[in-house]
Write a structure and sequence with these properties.
The protein has about 1000 residues and is mainly α. It is about 60% helix and about 5% strand. A hairpin with a 2-residue loop joins strand 14 and strand 15. About 5% of the residues have low confidence.
Length: about 1000
């Protein structure tokens, strides 16, 4: 290899450094992870110093290639890897491929002179053996790519020369070429045609004899039907062979079928050249009537997969539809889905299963719909007709005429067509027979809508776990899977249950019998390395996704790339629209187009997600230079956070209507001019939004916590405010997940010296610990939060922190300390005008007072708070007031009133789905019912409370429910079960370090049970 800057050659350095440059350049600007690059240079077992060496080589390459190595513009660091940004045509391989495409277009347009010039220019780029002396498996793969490209270009040059009538001039080169590539049939056909046209019939026959001998000795096969047919025409002295060189293989098999080293139409140098090949030469004179074709019986199906797994339901359904005896129109089966799901494998299984129903044969064609140059329907029709025995001179020139001829030939026949990898309906429709006796199977990444026939559509999804395990077992062996069942399950899960990914890891394990399955599972554990690991030989998950990605229009490609970091695990339409800076209509158009292209999934209307491996691929695409580079962070994160905070504020107001929303930053603080805040019709709608977007919300906070220091300066504050907006929904959401995001944000804020953010994030951490009754942890976080809030004067969060510190003291039965904290919080709430917050804290203080023996004071406080909370329509606060009021009435011995108060509370909880408050109210109601002798009712209420507490994971409440249930069962004489419940409660309270363990111990003692 050689590198030039202008006309000046550059010495690249060591072989490994050259191998790294090759691995970067030939990836066409795609980000390559460090793991991918290490494997590319050193293989699967690199030295321990590989990573350090890789970074050294990158540094050296920047010194050699960059104008300013301190600010690289060519070799960029992105994600966990590197990306080479070089003009595509500055790399000879890419230039040769483009010239091949241009040559094919020139020939299709009838410009033979330009075609020849472009082919010569492409071949002139070769200067000796490609990548000579460059080590590593990637370079070896690329050498094969170079070789295939050159062979294809040479063959196209020969075809061009023959079409131009330069028979004698091309014979020497063809003679050498057939000696260098003795297993390629197509060049033998060229040479036979050139010799025959030069009057050397005997030499042409000798070439065929040599080809037959070589193929028999090397492969144990005879020449294919195309070369055999050409031999018969030469032997018969067919005069048409002098007229046109197009159709060297007059009965060419569909060029889209899998590569056969014997086929004279193979290899194909580029999609454009293949598309243009059939029938673009001069039209020969009509053949005599005696030359009318005899229709052949093609059998073109590729082999069925020996290890086909799963899809039993789809196989049965498709087989039934395609062979239904009473069908009156052409049956078409459409199989769609993302790359790697096994669409072709399923189609072949069905085709082989039913082919006996189609005695006139099977046609197979790869329409190359996932590539940049999909097959031209006219060219495909020419190939299909040729496979049925139609000679080149009988092929119509127009696509419509070819389609009509196909339908004519298939009328009354029973033939199966497999159209693989279709781009769109426009590519498929001309290829369809008209006869109901035929059947068609179509595979496509997109959903094919608009085919004028009876279409049975199957949208493939990833394997179920048992199907994925079955495929793994079929390849690596039952013994290895049985020895590590858990690792096998983890492995297919890491593969996203994608059949291609499972096949790749299975192939790698099969090739390494000493590896444990756990070894492969560990290699896939790092999401940044996962895509690079999913490669084995010519199989690569990234390459499959790359084909789909390269087809996307720019706006779809940008949306696919930019949404990936924030759409975890899914994202709603309005949130995605805000992130992309679009209105909902335009965003939906783009996202639905991505769903149609199988690059996104839509699990429900208005909600979108990435398959796990597609998501990993999207992350590796990196940040476009126009977005400001890695230092700018994630481009869509600021508008996303602004939208989420605006919606979070609105939801907060629905849950806590008595508190002003001025405690939050103003919406649009990161992206001025962003869309207005969403509006919720009521609390139910607000809660539904929080629940639906919760994981997206916490993911956004985590991304903000990891944002680079150079990103938007207020991004951490917006994220902190978003956390605060969600805290009132703590009993409706996985609060521990929110706390994890808060912890990450607090750590980042502490490192950057931002006490405002640190105080708010640590308050959320403390509140989560409190809700789980982890009191020591709650004490630590609330103390740190209070200190940070005092330093920056954040009285809003200081008030909430003091309230939580009062609850900690109350749970520890330090009731006077609790009242002291509550009084401080109430004083701050009055100054801030936080009416709901003030009233809830007053109720907390009332509960502490009644526990301290001051039930009358508590009852008065409850009545005052309840009236005020109803006035501001704070339903959650009102339910809490009724709950505390019921407790106070119970302590005063006013049991009927206590039951009534709890019943009112439950009606509110059921109406507004306050599940946390409902569970607490039910076990308090159960205790009152027990005292009044209504023990059967008490058991029912305590049991329902216990189920709700277990569902929520609220361990302290679970212990209290168990304690009430144990007392009630003891009253009923069921002492054994009562003791079991008391012991469960004692275990829980003891583990949590709560003094309530004493009450459980007292019950066990009363039952005569040891502790």
């Amino acid at each position: 290899m050689s590198v030039h800057r202008g006309e000046t050659p550059i010495t690249i350095g060591s072989p490994q450094q050259q191998a790294l440059l090759v691995a970067l350049l030939l990836r066409s600007g795609r980000v390559a992870s460090t793991h991918e690059l290490i494997v590319s240079v050193w293989g699967e077992e690199p030295p321990s110093s590989a990573l350090a060496s890789l970074r050294t080589y990158v540094w050296r390459l920047r010194q050699l290639l960059e104008e300013d190595s301190a600010e690289p513009r060519l070799l960029l660091s992105q994600s966990d890897g590197y990306r080479m940004v070089a003009p595509p045509l500055s790399v000879d391989l890419h230039r040769a491929e483009q010239l091949a495409v241009d040559a094919g277009r020139a020939r299709a347009g009838g410009d033979g002179e330009a075609c020849g010039r472009l082919l010569a220019e492409a071949l002139g780029l070769w200067q000796g053996a490609p990548l000579a002396g460059v080590p590593g498996p990637y370079a070896e793969q690329q050498r094969a790519r170079f070789t295939e490209l050159r062979i294809g270009l040479e063959e196209e040059r020969f075809a061009h020369e023959l079409q131009a009538g330069r028979y004698g001039a091309v014979i020497p080169d063809l003679t050498v070429f057939t000696q260098e590539h003795p297993l390629q049939e197509r060049p033998y056909g060229f040479l036979m045609r050139a010799l025959y046209a030069s009057g050397r019939q005997a030499d042409a026959l000798a070439v065929y004899a040599r080809a037959r001998r070589v193929l028999a000795e090397e492969l144990g096969v005879d020449p294919g039907p195309e070369l055999t047919a050409l031999h018969e025409r030469v032997l018969a002295g067919d005069p048409l062979l002098d007229v046109s060189v197009r159709g060297t293989a007059p009965a060419a098999a569909a060029p889209e079928a899998p590569r056969d080293p014997r086929s004279p139409e193979d290899p194909q140098p580029s999609p454009a050249l293949r598309t243009a090949e059939p029938d673009t030469g001069p039209t020969p004179a009509p053949a005599p009537e005696s030359a009318a074709p005899v229709l052949d019986r093609p059998a073109q199906l590729p082999a069925d997969a020996f290890d086909f797994t799963g899809r039993a339901e789809q196989v049965e359904e498709l087989s039934r539809v395609l062979t239904a005896p009473d069908r009156t129109s052409l049956p078409v089966a459409s199989i769609s889905g993302m790359g790697g799901l096994g669409k072709t494998t399923l189609a072949l299984r069905v085709a082989h299963r039913i082919k006996h129903e189609f005695p006139d044969g099977q046609l197979y064609v790869d329409l190359r719909g996932s590539g940049l140059e999909p097959a031209d329907p006219s060219a495909v029709l020419g190939s299909m007709l040729a496979a049925m025995g139609v000679p080149p001179h009988a092929l119509p020139a127009m696509t419509d005429d070819r389609a009509r001829l196909l339908r004519t030939l298939l009328d009354g026949r029973r033939m199966l067509l497999l159209l693989d990898n279709a781009r769109d309906p426009a590519q498929v429709v001309p290829l369809l027979p008209g006869s109901a006796g035929c059947a068609v199977i179509v595979t496509s990444r997109t959903r094919l809508v608009g085919i004028p026939s009876a279409v049975t559509a199957v949208a493939l999804e990833a394997f179920a776990t048992d199907e994925a395990i079955e495929l793994l077992t079929a390849i690596v062996g039952a013994a290895r899977v049985a020895a590590e069942p858990a690792a096998a399950t983890d492995l297919v899960t890491a593969c996203g249950h994608l059949p291609l990914a499972v096949r790749i890891v299975a192939a790698r394990l099969a090739a390494r019998p000493r590896w444990q399955i756990e070894t492969m599972t560990r290699r896939l554990a790092d999401e940044r390395r996962r895509i690079g690991e999913l490669r084995a030989g010519d199989l690569a998950v990234a390459a499959t996704f790359e084909l789909g990605y390269r087809q996307l229009p720019q706006e779809q490609a940008c949306a696919f790339q930019h949404l990936a970091p924030v759409a975890r695990p899914s994202i709603g339409l309005e949130v995605a629209a805000a992130a992309l800076g679009l209105d909902a209509y335009d965003a939906e158009e783009i996202l639905e187009s991505l769903v149609d292209a199988a690059m996104l999934e839509a699990p429900q209307p208005g909600r979108y997600r990435y398959h796990d491996l597609v998501w990993a691929f999207a992350l590796q695409l990196g940040v476009s230079p126009g977005d400001g580079g890695a230092e700018a962070g994630i481009p869509v994160l600021p508008p996303l956070l602004d939208h989420l905070l605006a919606a979070g504020r609105a939801a907060f107001q629905c849950m806590v209507p008595g508190d002003p929303d001025g405690i939050f930053l103003t919406p649009g603080s990161l992206t001025p001019g962003s869309a207005p805040a969403p509006h919720f019709a009521g609390l139910a709608e607000a809660r539904a939004w929080v629940t639906a977007e919760f994981e997206c919300l916490t993911n956004a906070v985590m991304l903000a916590a990891r944002s680079p220091a150079g990103a938007a300066p207020r991004i951490l504050r917006v994220a902190a405010d978003l956390l605060i907006a969600l805290t009132p929904f703590g009993k409706d959401i996985p609060y521990g997940q929110l706390a994890a995001a808060a912890q990450a944000l607090a750590e980042t804020a502490a490192l950057r010296g931002d006490d405002h953010v640190a105080g708010r994030a640590r308050f959320v951490c403390g509140n989560a610990a409190l809700q789980s009754a982890r009191l020591a942890e709650a004490e630590l976080f609330t103390r740190l939060a209070a200190e940070a809030c005092e330093r920056v004067g954040d009285r809003v969060i200081l008030r909430q922190t003091l309230n939580d510190r009062g609850l900690i003291a109350q749970f520890q039965h330090r009731y006077e300390d609790a009242v002291h904290c509550y009084d401080q919080a109430i004083e701050l709430a009055e100054k801030l005008g936080h009416r709901s917050g003030e009233l809830v804290t007053r109720l907390n203080a009332a509960q502490a007072r009644l526990r301290g023996g001051r039930a009358e004071e508590a009852l008065v406080a409850c009545a005052e708070a309840l009236a005020a909370l109803r006035e501001v329509e704070d339903h959650h606060g009102a339910a809490y007031a009724l709950y505390v009021q019921g407790m106070a009435l119970h302590e005063l011995g006013r049991y009927d009133e206590a039951v009534a108060s709890h019943a009112q509370c439950l009606r509110l909880c059921e109406a507004w789905q306050f599940r946390g408050q409902e569970s607490q109210t039910r076990f308090r109601l159960a205790e009152t019912l027990r005292i009044t002798g209504r023990r059967e009712e008490a058991v029912r209420e305590a049991s329902r409370a216990l189920v709700l507490c277990e569902q929520r994971g609220a361990e302290r409440d679970q212990g209290l429910a168990l304690l009430v249930l144990g007392r009630t069962l003891a009253d009923l004489g069921d002492f054994g079960v009562a003791a079991a419940r008391a012991r469960q409660a004692h275990t829980l309270f003891t583990r949590l370090g709560l003094p309530d363990a004493d009450h459980a111990a007292a019950l066990l003692t009363a039952l005569g049970e040891p502790l």
